[in-house]
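TICKET: design request
STATUS: open
ATTACHED STRUCTURE:
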């Protein structure tokens, strides 16, 4: 069967049935994007490579657990959730054995997909308000709201205490409310 005509959700369903070619196609389509997102959050190329490998191993093993669009999810969002959690786990392992990981600066060459989506969303006021936030506040909102991470996972990801994450989230939400009022 030709896999080029299948969308990512259909590919994941085929992966769940053990279709190696569907897995390879899913990897080919999603890994470049995933690497960019991981590099935005971690400057250590070895951690990025390890997380990428762990993520796609998890995709292969857990494809049957993907609920799909019927449950309100997308395959791309599902793979990002896996990767974000693997990245947090990698940071925890590293913090346990050494100094905190080097987190990539939030000054990317190109805007992240979520930033483009928010800015392009009808009601670009949300994108404008998000862009006006201080980088440390925006990073907390991106991790917690857009990436769906918990306070603890966000703290590990950003290398700050949980209390700082809570404070920044409260300040970011207040600034967003004020900007959108």
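STATUS: resolved
RESOLUTION: sequence designed for all positions
ATTACHED SEQUENCE:
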């Amino acid at each position: 069967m030709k896999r080029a005509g299948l969308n990512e959700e259909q590919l994941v369903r085929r992966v769940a049935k053990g279709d190696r070619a569907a897995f390879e196609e899913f990897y080919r389509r999603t890994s470049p994007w995933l690497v960019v997102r991981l590099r935005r959050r971690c400057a250590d190329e070895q951690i990025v490579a390890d997380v990428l490998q762990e993520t796609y191993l998890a995709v292969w093993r857990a494809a049957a657990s993907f609920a799909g669009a019927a449950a309100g999810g997308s395959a791309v969002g599902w793979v990002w959730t896996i990767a974000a959690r693997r990245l947090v786990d990698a940071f925890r392992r590293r913090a346990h054995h050494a100094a905190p990981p080097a987190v990539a600066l939030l000054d990317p060459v190109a805007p992240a997909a979520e930033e483009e989506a928010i800015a392009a969303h009808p009601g670009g006021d949300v994108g404008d308000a998000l862009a006006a936030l201080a980088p440390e506040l925006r990073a907390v909102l991106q991790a917690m709201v857009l990436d769906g991470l918990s306070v603890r996972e966000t703290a590990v990801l950003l290398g700050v205490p949980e209390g700082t994450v809570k404070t920044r989230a409260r300040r970011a939400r207040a600034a967003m409310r004020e900007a959108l009022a």
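CLOSING REMARK: Confidence is low (pLDDT under 50) at residues 104-123. Residues 106 and 139 are 8 Å apart (CA to CA).
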